[in-house]
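Data availability (excerpt). All sequences and predicted token strings are deposited with the supplementary files. A representative entry, NAD(P)/FAD-dependent oxidoreductase, is shown inline so that the format can be inspected without opening the archive.
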Amino acid sequence: MTNHDVIVVGAGVTGLTTAYRLASAGHDVLVLEARDRVGGRLLTERHAQHDEADSSADFEVGGQWVSPDQTALLGLVDELGLETFPRYRSGDSLYVGRAGTPMRFTGDLPVSETTAAAIAQLTKTLDGLAGEMDPSRPWEHPDATHLDSVSFRAWLEERCDDVEACDNVAMYVGPAMLTKPAHAFSALQAVLMAASAGSFTNLVDADFILDRRVHGGLASVPRALADRLGDRVRLEADVSLVEWSDEGAVVHVGDQTFKARHVVLAVPPTVVRRIRFSPELPAEHRMAREHQSFGLVVKVQAAYASPFWREQGLSGTGFGPYELVHEVYDNTPDGDERGFLVGFVSDINADEVGRASAQERRERILASLATYFGEQAREPLVYVESDWQHQELTGGAYGTSFDLGGLTRYGAVLREPLGALDFGSSDVAGLGFQHVDGAIRVGDEIAGRLIEGVHP
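Structure token line:
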């Protein structure tokens, strides 16, 4: 048995940030990661079509974007000596409505005046509600009880009888962010999503929320942190049991044991349930995590010989609340002469294509891309799908959220320390909720608290 000041379970961004801050302050830290890699929900993979080396490319199959409000992430990127580049966005965007015909636009969506006015009013209302919320304590919102008792879909329909307006506003929070249908989460959860980005207006502004990418991929952040931590990070170390008290804890990995004064469970709430605790976690803690779940999304990326949409004066950005691929963007790496698109198939649509064969799923998804960009979109050089629901240690994307009533009932419990135990991940962040920025903020907060109480 080895003894440490702090053991961190999970080598995602939250865990590595916590460990890096503690190690930098002189504390003895050990990170235990069940996977054979670091990074959690951040991962870059190299793919090629038919094993042709000249068609190979790196694809970010997890999170990838950085926005101007994500100051914790931007600060860490700078601290680690990494660089960013802007997402390509010159030209017209595309909107596909119920008719299935792509319409070019810049600025506001090309919908009727009535629908545009309805979207504007819903946006104003959501901005107002988000402005009243501390995203770190959403259950304290003045109208939290009511907002958490009604689904976001029902809330929208109570305020607006324009179906297309409701469908578009629902898309930005449901399929695009929480990756659940809008009837499956509360209006309070939707307001939290908006407040965590500064406003609903920020959340729906693709030029803001999807501003930049990191050279080498966003997974470069956890890799750089792990490099600095060195042999403090142990991979393929799947924690099965944590024995804990107010004074310390013993962590079991197979037949190995590790002792620490503090243990940080830096994994999603749903993954905490994989670990046995002795004594058992209090019922409220267990139930809080039972009421959390991941959404479902298939991230689709296609590489082409050239960014042919740019030749048509298109930015590569497209939205279609009724399309299989509900949003799509130019995802071309900086300096690459080829063209890359990234799109998303979410919630109920993800269920449906998940039941199809791989070939049928590919054909249907490429057909949806062709709705936006024409027949050339059907013939990529490389086609890559990432579907995190098939990975036991994640189970979905992009983060966990509560069912109706869960946020007010259990939200405060998820971050509550227990004796020697701390819990945290991007899933329980305020600002940066569900994003790498939130993971860093949570890691910094936990490390700061422990540095004040842990002496090397």
